[in-house]
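Ticket #518: bound-state structure for zinc ion.
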Amino acid sequence: MNNQLIIFDTTLRDGEQSPGAAMTQDEKVRIALALQRLKVDVIEAGFAVASPGDFAAVQAVAREVTESTVCSLARANAGDIHRAAEALQPARRKRIHTFIATSPIHMEKKLRMQPEQVLEAAIGAVKLARQFTDDVEFSAEDAVRSDLDFLCRVFEAVIKAGATTINVPDTVGYSIPALWGERMRQLIERVPNADRVIWSTHCHNDLGMAVANSLAAVMSGARQVECTINGLGERAGNASLEEVVMAVKTRQDVFQLQTAIDTTQIVACSRLVSAITGYPVQPNKAIVGANAFSHESGIHQDGVLKHRETYEIMRAEDVGWAANKLTLGKLSGRNAFRARLEELGYKFKSEGELAEAFARFKDLADKKHEIFDEDLQMLVTQTEAARSEERLQLQWLEVTSKTGTRPLAKVALSVDGEIHEVEARGDGPVDAVFAAIESRVSSGAKLLLYSVNNITSGTDAQGEVTVRLAKDGRIVNGLGADTDIVIASAKAYVNAVNRLDVPIDRAHPQRAAYEATP
Ligand code: KIV
Ligand code: ZN
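RESOLUTION: The complex was predicted; output attached.
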């Protein structure tokens, strides 16, 4: 049996379905290039038919990525497949990923289709997709709750129609490892011509078992895992790429499989996805959490000092923690700045953009003497946000905070180019700043989340603040970074309000109304 495990990353599609994680085209391209440096085999760039913006983003990723295969999702209908094929046209290697639900509950309540109609739609979709590319993946949505005999019939038929990868999703995160492994085993055993295709698994994390279920499927013969950076994704997320990859690498004795992943890129990629989506990484998250390799207890520290393997099963530098090194400082010049960002996969579109980012870098270097890769990534994210002609911008702020009094915030905002000074008191300095901003913008949004993370270590580190706002059913994440966390909070709030202002009209792949293949 083939000993190569294909890593299919869906951060830009399923990951983007996390509340407030919608990304701009430029952001998607930056993440796609980081995924390419990580050497993922397949990048699912989006759902091309969802909106003109999604189409353009898939197309841009298809244009920029040269090594990994670029994939677009498409429901099993002609319109979706044509749109996916069109968006993927510039790709060097392209895949169309078409899907339809096969469980009784989805077919009856959501699709309102008979099983035979679903079967026909699946066959038609795969045949049509094969007219555009030889690389066609078929997914049976909600395979976990589908009848095994029906699933076997559908898979047999789509293999005959030309599918090259068969994906078995646990769409609702319902399975447990023993059962998921058994399901994969039975499918591979029972479906005729199973050996002609790659079997794949796509697990959600509702019961916290996405990675365990994926690995169980691998042990039963799956040779592709669909996963996301930091485990981002619908509801509780998808299987986390870094956990799957490191499990397979660390337990070679069990899996005897290889991936193409350059694991030293994992931490950088995780940071970038977190900075762009506004989803912080919990400190105790495996592999990429700030504490993943730190030892607190004296006994552990003593053991590690005497012999590292006493308590460490992986080396921090193998996943890129050692790359968290000082890169630039106050005296670094513009060329060094540009060169380091190019190494990190970021290309300036113009000299003007470089000049703007370099000015921000100098400001930061005045406040913080050591500048790390994470600082540079955040700086670029902020420069891009500032250039996207946001209506609302923070000019300056001043906060007075004294024991025994309610803090007072004075904030100057530019709204459509006009400066407004506002002030408000609050329960703390951040509360006062938010109240001052609200007194001018009256967004009426509900604050769902406020979180602060250190981008790097040390008391002069930049604080990275995430603010999640909800209004009229829309959820957005705003991000701000600064060595002063009150200023970082104001930036994050302003960023979130700006995002609320940009309406996104897009279809959701698994909720949008279904039109059958004509
Ligand atoms: O969870 C799921 O079933 C999906 C499919 C579209 C593969 O995301
Ligand atoms: Zn999914």
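RESOLUTION NOTES: The chain has four domains: 6-277, 295-324, 326-385, 389-501.
TICKET STATUS: resolved
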